[in-house]
């Protein structure tokens, strides 16, 4: 009886080990493609989604920088500019088609990606485990949980945010209570913004970002400090 139990334990251990090896053999590989005259829209720029600007020597160097930053899925390249001639975007033209604008002298590039499992087989979502290393280290903030995405037409990762935060990296306050929260969320300047009361009901106020911190003008109009 004891021998039989030990045999069963060994069989279970070997089966479990085989299962683990099978699972890990399905880990996929992320591949990037860049050809100077392909996947480009000449004289166009994707506006409003730039998260980083830098100076590079070529479109290829701009592509490498985009590839190495998991927030990046497309880029704007200014071939005649000497400084800040590479812009990294957190969306692409398929995600935000209205953001594509005519701009002579600027070239837009998609970050072209494909995914395969080790050995060259086709990556199948739901069957194969996605690993693109975009969650190591964790890009999510404020307690967000990172999930890697292996879809060539999507973001490269997503963050599951706590209830009080939102944004791709959980970097924004979901229910800003005052103009200081609006400023923390990266508001571009003074203007009308929604803020929320204690029951998370929204109302619009005018936030003056140029005067004293926290100064707000209500649409009533009522002037108060938050």
UniProtKB/TrEMBL annotation:
InterPro entries: EGF, Fibrinogen-like_C, Fibrinogen_a/b/g_C_1, Fibrinogen_a/b/g_C_dom, Pan_app. Residues 1-25 form the signal peptide. Residues 29-113 form the Apple domain. PROSITE patterns: EGF_1, EGF_3, PAN. Disulfide bonds join 140-150, 161-170. It comes from the Eukaryota. Residues 136-171 form the EGF-like domain. CDD domains: EGF_CA. GO terms for cellular component: extracellular space. Keywords: Calcium, Disulfide bond, EGF-like domain, Lectin, Metal-binding, Signal. This is Hyaluronan-binding protein 2. The gene is HABP2_2.
């Amino acid at each position: 009886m004891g021998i039989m139990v030990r045999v069963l334990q060994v069989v279970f251990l070997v089966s479990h080990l085989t299962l683990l090896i099978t699972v890990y053999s399905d880990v996929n590989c992320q591949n990037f493609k860049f050809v100077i005259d392909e996947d480009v829209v000449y004289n166009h720029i994707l506006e409003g989604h730039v998260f980083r600007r830098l100076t590079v020597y070529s479109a290829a160097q701009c592509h490498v920088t985009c590839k190495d930053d998991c927030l990046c899925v497309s880029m704007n390249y200014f071939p005649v500019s000497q400084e800040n001639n590479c812009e990294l975007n957190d969306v692409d033209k398929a995600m935000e088609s209205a953001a594509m604008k005519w701009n002579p002298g600027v070239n837009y590039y998609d970050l072209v990606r494909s995914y395969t499992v080790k050995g060259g087989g086709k990556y199948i979502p739901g069957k194969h485990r996605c690993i693109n290393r975009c969650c190591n280290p964790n890009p999510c903030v404020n307690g967000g949980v990172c999930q890697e995405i292996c879809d060539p037409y999507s973001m490269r990762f997503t963050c599951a945010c706590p209830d009080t935060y939102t944004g791709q990296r959980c970097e924004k306050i979901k229910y800003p209570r005052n103009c200081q929260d609006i400023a923390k969320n990266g508001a571009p300047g003074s203007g009308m913004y929604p803020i929320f009361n204690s029951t998370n009901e929204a109302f619009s106020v005018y936030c003056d970002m140029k005067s004293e911190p926290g100064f707000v003008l209500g649409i009533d109009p009522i002037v108060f400090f938050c």
